[in-house]
Amino acid sequence: MQIDLIKGHGSGNDFLIIDEISNEYTFTEEDRATLARVLCNRNSELGADGILFVMNSEHAVGRMRVFNADGSEASMCGNGLRLVARYICELKGLNKAVIETMKANLKVSKQEDIFPQVHTYQVEISPVLFDLKALPLNLNKSSVFNEKIEELSPELKFTALAVPNPHLISIVETEQLSSNLQKQLSEKVNGPNHLFPDGVNVSFVSPLQKDSIYVRTFERGVGFTNACGTAMSASSLVTCLLDINEYEKGINVYNNGGRVQCVVHKLEDTYSIDLIGNATYLYQASVSLNLEEKTFTVSSRKNLAEQATYEKLQEDAQQMIKQTILFYQLF
Description:
Blueprint: E1 2-10, E2 13-19, H1 29-39, E3 50-55, E4 62-68, E5 73-74, H2 78-92, E6 96-100, E7 105-110, E8 120-125, E9 159-162, E10 166-171, H3 174-177, H4 181-189, E11 201-209, E12 212-219, E13 223-225, H5 229-241, E14 251-255, E15 258-267, E16 270-278, E17 280-290, E18 295-303, H6 307-324
Parallel strand pairs: 2-3, 4-6, 10-11, 12-14
Antiparallel strand pairs: 1-2, 1-17, 3-4, 4-5, 6-7, 7-8, 8-16, 9-10, 11-12, 12-13, 14-15, 15-16, 17-18
């Protein structure tokens, strides 16, 4: 089987984009999981955090399905949605669109460059749910907001929410960022455990200065990533709830993959977040795939020139982090 794809990234969170709108590919659910495990393997010629399947939709301009590198399906992916937004908008000749995801139809639009010559898209992150059943998190309460979960840590306070991916957010000090605490905690809640039976994305958040935060995320089904779009969105919302940042104002969110901007909206007790950031293409490739044997070869590959410009944004972001957080072992 021959498959054409594009490899791209949002904030260093990299994906393989497979177009099912223009191509007559037919995949079973098992095929999609196998494709993700095989093509995303970091020891292969490709490697990625996941696959974005771009599909036709009966309710929107297009549809996105996201499969993580381990073959599991994610209900949402903010960094991936920016790539799909770009792909569909360019395919259809649009500046804005609505894209169907697992839990909601979401608005996307092309925006002014977040950094010179960096393709930039805004995507809607919603719904936002605080009910622990939405994650799920098995505790004898309905929600967790800036409070301790004794089974996880005697020192950290957590907020749990789904956007709609499940997230566990903690505002931390520099010493906690530089320790192994996040790794140990994340592996615990993403292994066999009774608290989070489906696992959870775990983010440590450090305020940098007014309207700026740093977010590092251990992503369910992936591990530590350069960035997680829904995690950066959820983290921004939590900082607004804690009066660290303000609603309706741009929040610069720094991560190991670069920088995005989030704007948190509140309407009575309902929240949504705009996630604004890069949608950068790395290369186009054609792959000869044997699904039965779970093998592939790259038959052609054309590198694109966008990454060099993005690296300037990344360098700028890392300099900001290093100047504000006085440790360097993250880089």
